[in-house]
Amino acid sequence: MEYEPEADSADKSQSFEVKIEADSNDITEHPGDDAPRPYLYTVSDKQSAKKGSLDEHRKSRFQEYLCYECEKGFSSPSDLRRHMNVHSSKYTCAECGKRFQSNHHLARHVRSHSREKPFECSVCPKRFTQAWNLLIHSRIHSEYKLYKCHTCDKVYSRSGHLKKHMELHTAEKLHKCLVCDKAFSHSEDLKTHVRVHTGDKPHLCHMCCKSFRKSGDLKRHIRVHTGDKAHKCRVCDKAFNDNGDLKRHMRVHTGDKPYKCQICNKAFSRSESLNVHTRVHAGDRPHECIVCSKRFTHVGNLIVHNRIHSGEKPYKCHICDKAFTVAVSLKRHVGIHTEDKPYKCPMCDKAFIDNAALSKHMAGHLGHKPYRCQMCDKTFTQSSSLNAHMKVHTGDKPFECTVCNKRFAQAWNLVVHNRSHSGDKPYECPLCDKAFSVSRTLNRHMRIHERQPVQDYENAV
């Protein structure tokens, strides 16, 4: 609220304006109505009814009723009388000596010492000291969020969270980082940010001595030790120790992919995945292999690539003991034993072991080839195919055979080549036990059986 005093105090009859403007972002004043509510009153000292409203407004601003014991100010006599009960009250906390107006307020305060939490959430095992905190928490499960930002339509379950968010739109960012020039609305946010540059991690876990920059990160980490997973999925009963992880998990069931690439319209369920994907278009590959200088868009791809040089294969098949460098290769391999291919193509009835393989296959039907070579304009359905193709132009062959020094453009070609030295033939025919070093040779061999019935073939043998 704002008011403008009389321009000339000698002129007692002069009118002045009081502009009382409802906060356009506080929908608690007008639930369900997004429109701001400005109110303008013209108040004169001759209009006693409206003058009274102004007096009430002045009292709320200046708190003219003071407590003679603690000098705390109040806007009305009734508020002051209620407060005075605190000084004369018989309801005193035995732990800290604090006084309260009623036994109810005292009982609520005592829980801060005893840590008793009588109010339990009916959805998750989380407990609270006060019923009001439980009510606010329940909005997480019901998705009932009362406080809405009128700038970006984001909604929150608590007014304090909305006020904090609104500073992104309105607050001037006066607190600047001297290292990277990033600016913040609050000095506390700047202090937390500076730890990125200094490496300071003041929040220490007393169970494993791991440290964190933010207290919130420490709280989430503690749940790893306690096993507390209060946030449960209502679809598959999977549990998470963080509400943000649950929200991301729910997109598995809903299929929601809110993060879309502005260049090729590919959508992702996580912002981190989109950030990594945009490097494909920008050509940004910040992660370099120290052995062969190959560069990658994501650190996870570099970790997998390093296994080619180290020979590490941590993923082992429990049926035949064959090992693989990545989990998805093991999953695909196990399908050979189980013949389980749940992901079927709706256009050609071809089936696949995982959804990723089906998505790649579907791109061939749809003709969707977003990855274009800048040198010859050839297009590809996958970024990996484009990367492999680029070596045709550059002549780059980073993968060398340690036996005969032959070099290859693709790691997979080196793997296949090594079988010529080791004699490894992992692809066996289920009908005649003949084995092959590559899958395409097995597929070509299987056509022999398709032309000749199995029984005739067995008789011939």
Share of helix among residues? 40-55%
| Low-pLDDT runs | 1-51, 57-62, 454-461
Spatial order of strands in the largest sheet: 1-2-3
DSSP summary: helix tally:
16
Overall 3D geometry?
A: elongated
The quaternary organization reads as: single chain
Major sheet summary line: 3 strands, antiparallel
- Class by SSE composition: alpha+beta
Binned strand content: 15-25%
Quick overview of this protein structure:
The protein is α+β, with helices and mostly antiparallel strands and 461 residues long. It is built from 16 helices and 31 strands.
Tell me what you see in this structure.
The radius of gyration is 34 Å and the shape is elongated. The protein is built from 16 helices and 31 strands. It has 461 residues and is of the alpha+beta class.
Main traits of this protein?
single chain; 461 residues; alpha+beta; three-stranded antiparallel β-sheet; two-stranded antiparallel ribbon; 16 helices; 31 strands; 15% strand; elongated; disordered N terminus; disordered C terminus
Question: What's the arrangement of secondary structure elements?
Answer:
Elements: E1 2-3, E2 16-21, E3 38-43, H1 48-62, E4 65-66, E5 73-74, H2 77-88, E6 91-92, E7 99-100, H3 103-114, E8 119-120, E9 127-128, H4 131-142, E10 147-148, E11 155-156, H5 159-170, E12 175-176, E13 183-184, H6 187-198, E14 203-204, E15 211-212, H7 215-226, E16 231-232, E17 239-240, H8 243-254, E18 259-260, E19 267-268, H9 271-282, E20 287-288, E21 295-296, H10 299-310, E22 315-316, E23 323-324, H11 327-338, E24 343-344, E25 351-352, H12 355-366, E26 371-372, E27 379-380, H13 383-394, E28 399-400, E29 407-408, H14 411-422, E30 427-428, E31 435-436, H15 439-451, H16 454-460
Antiparallel strand pairs: 1-2, 2-3, 4-5, 6-7, 8-9, 10-11, 12-13, 14-15, 16-17, 18-19, 20-21, 22-23, 24-25, 26-27, 28-29, 30-31
